[in-house]
Design brief:
Blueprint lengths: L1 E6 L3 H9 L5 E7 L18 E4 L6 H10 L3 E4 L8 H10 L3 E4 L5 H18 L5 E8 L9 H13 L5 E3 L11 E8 L6 E7 L4 E7 L4 H15 L3 E4 H8 L3
Parallel strand pairs: 1-2, 1-3, 3-4, 4-5, 5-11, 6-8, 7-8
Antiparallel strand pairs: 6-9, 9-10
Helix pairs in contact: 1-6, 4-5
The protein binds NADP nicotinamide-adenine-dinucleotide phosphate.
NADP nicotinamide-adenine-dinucleotide phosphate binds next to helix 1.
């Protein structure tokens, strides 16, 4: 059983703890200000192999440096900091360690990425179809748009040549043809809904992924930690998930 340390003991951290034994990992350390346990360079991390971080972006880099310096690996589920991905990759190489970053650890969502990839390649040639998306999350979500919405948008932009820029803001004007609109709605207790629609004068196709709960994210992060325990390097979860599940 690999030994896991948790950074952040909110909704995700607690759920990972709850399902850990059933998924063949052991939680040996928990760092969260609400648990009166803050990670510092003096923390003894000898009983941890891989850390899983579901916290907030503020201390992400400081915590990552402490972890990597002590030769531990790190799975990062925290979102809202991806403008600094390059900095995190450099940190990983500096300490010759291992990091997996995942904006969405659910297997279903990563399969959804593949479906969107295929669909947008197809609709690239079908000029009658416009494309856009929207996402919904619970009222407690701190960042907007979701990391998943950004990922879906970048898959579409990579494939549909007539769309060149994602537009996540509220528009007080007409959308330009080259803009891909992706809207965010916050409210209620929704674990995460993402929709992509292809619309023509003749019909509408809607691709939808709805998370029923947070368990898919928690299991995905645990499986990623097991995979990483045997490896070094910097990985995006979406690029390795097929390998993790032998797809
Ligand atoms: N990648 C995925 O699959 C996925 C899935 C779900 C959520 N997420 C992301 O994961 C993050 C956490 O989500 P959540 O729903 O679990 O949030 P949450 O319930 O708010 O939990 C975050 C916890 O981390 C604590 N925290 C803040 N700063 C910390 C630090 N420096 N060190 C250790 N703990 C710290 C928070 O304490 P305070 O209350 O004192 O701030 C809180 O207890 C968010 O960024 C969310 O978007 C990702």
């Amino acid at each position: 059983m690999i030994r896991i340390g948790l950074i952040g003991y909110g909704r995700m951290g607690k759920l990972i703890h709850e399902i850990s034994e059933d998924n063949d990992v052991k939680i040996t350390q928990i760092f969260d200000p609400n648990e009166h346990n803050i990670l510092s360079s003096n923390s003894n991390l000898s009983d941890v192999e891989v850390f899983i971080d579901f916290s907030t972006p503020e201390k992400l880099f400081a915590n990552a440096e402490i972890i990597l310096k002590k030769n531990k690996k790190l799975v990062i589920g925290t979102t809202g900091w991806y403008e600094n991905l390059g900095k995190m990759e450099n940190l990983c190489h500096k300490y010759d360690s291992g990091i997996i970053v995942g904006g969405n650890f659910s297997v279903g969502m990563n399969a959804f990425y593949e479906i969107i990839n295929y669909a947008s390649k197809l609709f690239n040639k079908l000029n009658d179809y416009d494309v856009y998306g929207w996402e919904q999350h619970h009222s407690g979500k701190a960042d907007s748009p979701s990391g998943t919405a950004k990922e879906i948008s970048s898959i579409i932009l990579n494939n549909i040549e007539r769309k060149t820029i994602a537009q996540f803001d509220k528009l007080d004007r007409k959308i330009k043809p080259e803009e891909l609109h992706f809207a965010s709605i916050r409210g209620g207790r929704i674990s995460g809904i993402h929709n992509v629609q292809f619309d023509s004068p003749f019909d509408t196709l809607t691709l939808n992924h709805s998370a029923k709960n947070r368990q898919g994210f928690a299991i995905g992060a645990i499986e990623a930690a097991k995979w990483l325990s045997q490896r070094k390097g910097f990985y995006m979860y979406k690029d390795i998930f097929k390998g993790i599940y032998n797809l």
